[in-house]
Write a structure and sequence with these properties.
alpha/beta, Gyrase A, domain 2, 4-stranded antiparallel beta sheet, 22 helices, about 55% helix, globular, RNA-binding
Length: about 600
RNA sequence: GGUCCCAUAGCUCAGCUGGAUAGAGCAACAGAUUUCUAAUCUGUAGGUCAUAGGUUCGAAUCCUAUUGGGAUCACCA
């Protein structure tokens, strides 16, 4: 719509002798209840037009209509200049922009961006919180790639530490050599089982010690199990062969399980980082910071940074015994990732409980003079809560990722069968469809919401399949495919019609917004923008579908045009859903 | 106590850098299928945009304070 802004600038110069820039003019979509497609707000111009908003709008509108052949007419309501563009303009847009294969395809913009997400712990299976993380990360990566970025998806696996030792210890003590093969359990679930078991036994010991007169705090420290776990961690760090072997074995079980879950979720990674490798990093950055005077050493030899000027606290970056803390590792890992890829920006998809950590991390890197630090961004998202409160893996009060996905598929199956539309499908075909629909419902449910908001998930209230949902959009796509197939449509040439019905024009307007929507979503790292756009588009299509017959159109030219419009809508829906990581079926 | 995030219809949420009478979906009610997939469409009803001030021609949106909810401020990760 740049040509309208340009013309408006000329109009204002001509009418009021004032030079404005494009930024001074705000265009918006015309609201449905008014005539027109584009609206200009004229209030700001009244200062120098010295006329009422209505008069100003009328003057500019008249000028535009005179100068631009694309402008069919205008009306002014309370200072809002609503501009109607000609059907010829919209049809031309359809022919030259929307229908060609390169619609909404962006050329590489030469920028490289890293998206780090998932970050699982190898002591337990993934749960609903991880699902939100994975879907967000994957979708943001797809959106950025779609907007022209080169994207590197990374996963920093938290594969060491005391929590891992807990699972290992419990397995050693109570496992009787159980393996995924012997038990038939998925590897990550098997390991998670022992993590929960550890906690149960640990609590028993705490209770026993409390009965003997210890305080809660003492009991937690003195319980034999926790001491053994700590010992195991030290052995691990010392490279004890037996411990390392056990660690490797159990981790391999978990990775096999994760690979399954990721595949089911439809997410993937280009590069894995492992904390067992990165936890030693960061010490040289500490030296660098000390030299530069960014850090300071306390008498007990611990190293700190003073962020009180920034309204934060003093923060420890190295322990007094010289070992790393979380921050040390993350400093080192950030440098490592930059050395590996030299990306222009880097997005960390991590829950909002770590807002403070990342604020500090980025600030430190800036203070250290890392030029790349300004490209770092923490994509923070709210926790997923259950009606019963927070999810806690240790206590087993979680919605397990694998279970949830299976349930969604089951629900999709029941709903689809009840409608009896796919009786001619083969068994595999059916299974695949249930997967697509079930996952579509789940993914859309999680992605349509602003990531910042915390999410309440009630497992008893199943995710909807009607209304503002993934299946609604999938259904619209299936419908389109069905019509196109019946018509034997194969990408015919240009639209041969001249005049548009309202629903047709609305649909073209909606389609034409897609490229900009991608850019806006990319700039804001927001799948929700895509999700909400697709819903609007699907609604607009369904309305068109309902009001206008396609196969029984009044004449062949009109039929071809409506098929083109349908094909374009189908393509945008498919591509848009792809940006969310959601597949669309040909039939459902 | 400090800092950060959130608060819009009964429920789940849109509302982009301030713009028109605050919009959807679900649930409720009333309708639409001899015609391309009714997982659809049309309509009715539902609001002190947490509260109070301020800035502005104009505030759900920006600023300040208050209330409610959440997170965080570990020599845990």
């Amino acid at each position: 719509m740049d040509f309208i802004i340009e013309a408006a600038l000329k109009a204002i110069k001509h009418l009021y002798q004032i030079e404005l820039t494009a930024a001074d003019i705000s265009l918006q979509e015309t609201r449905k209840e008014f005539e027109g497609q584009v609206t200009m707000v004229t209030f700001p111009f009244t200062k120098f037009s010295k006329k009422s908003p209505e008069q100003t709008g009328n003057e500019i509108g008249a000028y535009l209509q005179n100068e631009l052949e694309e402008v069919a007419g205008f009306n002014v309501i309370k200072g809002f200049l609503n501009i109607s563009l000609t059907d010829g303009f919209w049809l031309n847009k359809l022919d030259t922009e929307i229908l060609p294969d390169d619609f909404a395809v962006f050329k590489p913009n030469g920028k490289k961006v890293m998206v780090e997400y998932s970050s699982p712990n190898t002591n337990k299976p993934l749960h609903l919180g991880h699902i939100r993380n994975n879907l967000l990360g994957f979708s943001v990566a797809e959106i950025l790639a779609g907007a022209g970025y080169e994207v590197i998806k990374t996963n920093l696996v938290n594969d060491r530490g005391i929590h891992i030792c807990k699972s290992m210890l419990a397995w050693q003590k109570f496992g009787n050599g159980e393996t995924p093969e012997s038990s038939g359990l998925k590897g990550d679930h098997l390991v998670g089982k022992y993590y929960v078991l550890f906690d149960k036994e640990y609590k028993k010991q705490i209770d026993e010690l409390k009965q003997l007169g210890q305080t809660e705090e003492e009991a937690k420290k003195n319980a034999p199990l926790i001491k053994e776990a700590q010992e195991m961690l030290q052995q691990w760090e010392a490279g004890d062969k037996e411990v390392i072997n056990l660690w490797k074995t159990m981790n391999s079980w978990v990775y096999a399980g994760f690979a399954d879950t990721y595949k089911n979720l439809g997410v993937s990674f280009d590069k894995f980082y492992y904390e067992s490798n990165t936890y030693i990093l960061g010490k040289d950055i500490i030296d660098e910071g000390l030299k530069k005077g960014v850090f300071f050493r306390k008498p007990d030899n611990s190293v700190w940074i003073d962020l009180t000027d920034e309204g934060l606290d003093e923060k420890l970056v190295l322990r007094s015994d010289g070992t790393s803390v979380y921050m040390t590792q993350d400093l080192g890992t950030a440098q490592l990732k930059y050395n590996d890829f030299q990306m222009d920006s880097s997005i960390y998809v991590v829950g909002n409980e770590q807002d403070y950590h990342f604020k500090v991390l980025f600030l430190i890197l800036q203070k250290l003079g890392k030029t790349w630090a300004k490209g770092l961004f923490h994509l923070s998202y709210g926790m997923v809560d259950l009606p019963s409160g927070k999810m806690k893996s240790r206590e087993g009060t979680v919605v397990d990722a694998d279970d949830l996905m299976a349930e969604m598929e089951q629900t999709a199956k029941l709903q689809t069968e009840a409608m009896g539309k796919v009786e001619d499908f083969g068994t595999d075909e059916k299974q695949q469809l249930y997967h697509i629909i079930g996952m579509g419902a789940l993914k859309y449910f999680l992605l349509k919401v602003d990531p910042k908001k915390r999410l309440l998930f009630d497992p008893n209230e199943s995710v909807d399949f009607q209304g503002h949902t993934g299946p609604f959009i999938q259904y619209t796509h299936a419908r389109i495919r069905s019509v196109l197939n019946k018509a034997g449509y194969n990408n015919a040439g240009k639209a041969g019609i001249q005049i548009l019905a309202d629903v047709e024009r609305d649909l073209i307007v909606s389609l034409s917004q897609f490229p900009e929507i991608i850019q806006v979503a990319a700039a804001g790292f927001s799948p929700a923008i895509i999700a909400n756009y697709l819903f609007e588009l699907a609604k607009t299509y369904n309305k068109f579908y309902h009001e206008k017959s396609i196969l029984q159109a009044e004449d062949e030219v009109l039929k071809q045009f409506r098929l083109q419009l349908s094909a374009a809508s189908g393509k945008v829906i498919k591509k848009g859903m792809g940006l969310l990581g959601i597949e669309v079926p040909e039939r459902m």
